[in-house]
Structure of FeMo cofactor biosynthesis protein NifB:
Amino acid sequence: MQANTEHIGIDTGKPLEQLLEKIADHKGCGTSSDGGKASCGSSDGPADMAPEVWEKVKNHPCYSEEAHHHYARMHVAVAPACNIHCNYCNRKYDCANESRPGVVSEKLTPEQASKKVLAVASAIPQMTVLGIAGPGDPLANPAKTFKTFELIAKTAPDIKLCLSTNGLTLPDHVDTIKAFNVDHVTITINMVDPEVGQHIYPWIFYKNKRYTGIEAARILTERQLLGLEMLTAAGVLAKINSVMIPGINDKHLVEVNRAVKSRGAFLHNIMPLISAPEHGTVFGLNGQRGPSAQELKALQDACEGEMNMMRHCRQCRADAVGLLGEDRSAEFTTEKIDEMSEVVYDAETRKAYQELVESERLEKVAAKEAALAEMSDDEVSDIKILIAVATKGQGRVNEHFGHATEFQIYEMSSAGSKFVGHRRVDLYCQGGFGEEETLPSVVRAINDCHAVFVAKIGGCPRDELKAAGIDPVDRFAHEFIEESAITYFKEYLAKVRSHEVVHEMRGDADIRQGAYISAA
Ligand SMILES: C[S@@+](CC[C@H](N)C(=O)[O-])C[C@H]1O[C@@H](n2cnc3c(N)ncnc32)[C@H](O)[C@@H]1O
Ligand code: SF4
Ligand code: SF4
């Protein structure tokens, strides 16, 4: 099987010697052979992060926003059962075309999962993380979860292991988690107040007994917070997922943020509720809506302070494979993997490939820092704008407007560029033609942005965007996103200063987070 080369623009089908030659060419500008230290760029990590923490997160696409442009993850669906019920979950849903939590095409045994991991690791050498996130709860299926970790730790020791749990039985497993070198654990904490929790969790099953109502929520919150404290004490990084459910826990999540921050959580990922009647969930059927893009961003902004907020979560399937935002799970079905005679795990080629990825990444970080350093004092202002970007990865503007199924959104200010989310849209260009009914919905989805960066764009969408007050920009095609965005922002500030344009806030984007915006 050939390695995926599309994302870093190098041919990993070449012999290893040629790859290593390329790596040698990059040695002048940082290298990971010295443990990730570099002579340019910022591979040492953010100034406010301990080196040992940076070492754990720097290649993890979920724990580092910057890494997600370069490194991939995969989930293996070995954990079907769950010990609680959430009103937003329905795991009976089995669909190859839907990408949302709990959805899988097939469940795997630990042995099948282990073989799949080796096959994916060979085909996608920048896959650095193996997570177990269901389709149920990994710790309600501890034997299967830990057997999978055991098999993978033996055959592919360079792959980082992580799991995502509701936390009910977490305190019972922290020692085992530590023993398997699981560096990253995600706990879903939607409330710290049982009054709120009773509207999210109809029941839990704990110590052979079923609990409902306030009592169920009280036990759950106590176990979750205890589990978090134990992870922190054990030196395991904890990420907290919270599902934002308007009218139920949206206001309360600021309190949740405080509670998890004070107990040592590393990252808080507030995700939008995904809810539609056809999903068959309690919330879907009773019409509970998810938040809008603006509501979600406002809450994330309110929680951001000393604690990192995750804004690049793609709410993946329980069998997702690839870079965040792309789904290559269909390429690795059990049927296809069974057809492979033997999967050889080539750790050397993986390492060599990742060193190339790292050098490209350092180049990108250095370009961003250089662009930012050129910002003069008189460019400092209160102005903020949003820029939408069509990209397929690598941190570059490299997607055609018509081929984009999502736009990454960057907030620009005189402090620099900040990734603040993504917007999924229907595909505008199908079979070479623009879908006229789709275009207005795409424009509405990025209506709060001042510009959209694309690799290419046709005449019709260009005119429509301009008419909506959004600047279509293709001159940064294939350049690094953040460096380009800083350049654009500086030009924008200059135009405001010279009164060539009047700065004004843009309107609200008409997009419900967590759902595809649809032309229908
Ligand atoms: C499928 S769960 C699996 C792991 C574990 N059972 C848990 O709930 O944490 C992964 C994540 O997806 C979230 N999730 C599931 N259904 C969702 C929905 N309809 N909308 C938003 N998030 C959802 C869960 O809350 C959890 O954070
Ligand atoms: S804990 Fe996870 S798997 Fe279980 S019902 Fe909730 S979302 Fe679904
Ligand atoms: S659901 Fe979010 S946190 Fe989990 S793998 Fe996907 S992007 Fe990462």
In short: The longest strand covers residues 416-424. The mean pLDDT is 84. The longest helix spans residues 347-373. The domain at 12-31+41-335 is CATH 3.20.20.70 (TIM Barrel).
